[in-house]
């Protein structure tokens, strides 16, 4: 099988490409390599893929329908995994339009071309941010009609569009709601990366709230394995991929201190209105449909991430965070 992975230089997209290649798939990756966060991290990820047999890369934007159309005309795909997205809850409040153009219109472009080419397998990366205000642990059947950020709203729109194309054109769709993904080569705008970076630099952590917020931190390798398993989904399914073991932010900071051997300095700020105070995934459906469950504890995952920082500190130290 040949699989198109959008956002292939992104954090999760890169790891999904690795798992696909390890499993024997041909992979075509696309990414626009934008500068929402320091592109040097994206380029590092891409270098890990470039010499892999079975991998081909195109620099293009899923918002560009004509460029995508040319790609679909010269490559024949058996499935599409859409990891390309504008991410970040807070930034979506500053620049909401780009979230709609990428997360909604970009998804629509892919679905339209899949329809035209007769491609029947679609995996959509979505988010636990949709569950704001719902009782925990979050189950997929909960109503998610009250998104509290433009980011969450754009992901809800992409989910609904995907259902429409499943209903009208028989495309099998797996919508994966990811829970706080972290790990080596993570996103510099997310707390696990930023906190480790600041501690290693000897700079204060900027913490919004008192640290009692709870997150279902999920290691990137586990997320990527679940994403590849989702290619087997028939029909339309929404599936949580989370660690099912939530922890406070303060505990993650304690682990960073343990594995770096350094004490964290913390600047406390106001809790952000668009942030969720708690997340916790019910993963019963992932176990039943995909035969998937996470294998990596937060302790093991943070240690691996700290070791990656240490191994790559010569270039990480100078990136923008």
Report on this model:
Residues 3-242 form the NAD-dependent epimerase/dehydratase domain. The protein contains twelve helices and 13 strands. Helix 1 links the parallel strand 1 and strand 2 (26-31). It has helices at 11-23, 39-50, 65-74, 89-94, 96-117, 150-169, 191-201, 220-229, 249-260, 284-290, 298-311, 313-316, and strands at 2-6, 26-31, 55-59, 79-82, 121-127, 172-178, 181-182, 205-208, 214-215, 218-219, 236-241, 247-248, 266-269. The strands form four sheets. The chain has a seven-stranded parallel beta sheet with strand order 3-2-1-4-5-6-11, with helices on both faces. The protein has a two-stranded parallel ribbon with strand order 7-10. It has one domain: 3-Layer(aba) Sandwich (Rossmann fold), CATH 3.40.50.720. The protein is globular and about 55 Å long. By secondary structure, the chain is α/β, with parallel strands linked by helices.
What is the percent of helical residues? 40-55%
The strand order across the widest sheet is 3-2-1-4-5-6-11
Largest sheet: 7 strands, parallel
Mean pLDDT: 96
How far apart the termini lie comes to: 38 Å
| Name of the CATH first level | Alpha Beta
Spell the H/E element sequence: EHEHEHEHHEHEEHEEEHEEHEHHH
How much strand? 15-25%
Structural class: alpha/beta
Number of helices: 12
Task: Identify the overall geometry.
Answer: globular
CATH fold category name = Rossmann fold
Which architecture name does CATH use? 3-Layer(aba) Sandwich
β-strand number: 13
Name of the CATH homologous superfamily: NAD(P)-binding Rossmann-like Domain
Gyration radius, rounded: 19 Å
Task: Show unreliable segments.
Answer: none
Keywords: NAD
Protein name: Nucleoside-diphosphate-sugar epimerase
Domain NAD-dependent epimerase/dehydratase: 3-242
Organism: Hydrogenivirga caldilitoris
């Amino acid at each position: 099988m040949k699989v198109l992975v959008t956002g292939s230089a992104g954090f999760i997209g890169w790891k999904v490409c690795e798992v696909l290649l390890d499993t024997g798939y041909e992979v075509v990756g696309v990414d626009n390599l934008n500068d929402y966060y320091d592109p040097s991290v994206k380029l590092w990820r891409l270098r890990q893929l470039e010499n892999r047999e079975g991998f081909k890369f195109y620099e293009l934007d899923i918002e560009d329908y004509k460029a995508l159309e040319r790609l679909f005309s010269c490559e024949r795909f058996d499935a599409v995994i859409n990891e390309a997205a504008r991410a970040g809850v807070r930034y979506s409040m500053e620049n909401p339009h780009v979230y709609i153009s990428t997360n909604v219109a970009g998804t629509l472009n892919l679905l339209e071309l899949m329809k035209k080419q007769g491609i029947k397998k679609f995996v959509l990366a979505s988010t636990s941010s949709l569950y704001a205000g719902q009782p925990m642990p979050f189950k997929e059947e909960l109503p998610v009609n009250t998104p509290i950020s433009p980011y969450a709203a754009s992901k809800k729109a992409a989910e609904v569009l995907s259902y429409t194309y499943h209903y009208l054109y028989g495309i099998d769709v797996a919508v994966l709601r990811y829970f706080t993904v972290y790990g080596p080569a993570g996103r510099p705008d997310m707390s696990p990366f930023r906190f480790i970076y600041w501690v290693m630099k000897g700079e204060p952590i900027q913490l919004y709230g008192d640290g009692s917020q709870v997150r279902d931190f999920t290691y990137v390798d586990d997320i990527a394995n679940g994403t590849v398993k989702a290619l087997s989904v028939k029909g339309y399914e929404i599936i949580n991929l989370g660690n099912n073991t939530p922890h406070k932010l303060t505990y993650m900071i304690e682990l960073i201190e343990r594995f770096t051997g350094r004490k964290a300095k913390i600047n406390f700020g106001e809790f952000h209105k668009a942030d969720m105070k708690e997340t916790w995934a019910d993963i019963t459906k992932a176990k039943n449909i995909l035969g998937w469950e996470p294998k990596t504890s937060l302790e093991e995952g943070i240690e691996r991430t700290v070791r990656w920082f240490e191994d790559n500190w010569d270039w990480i130290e100078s990136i923008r965070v």
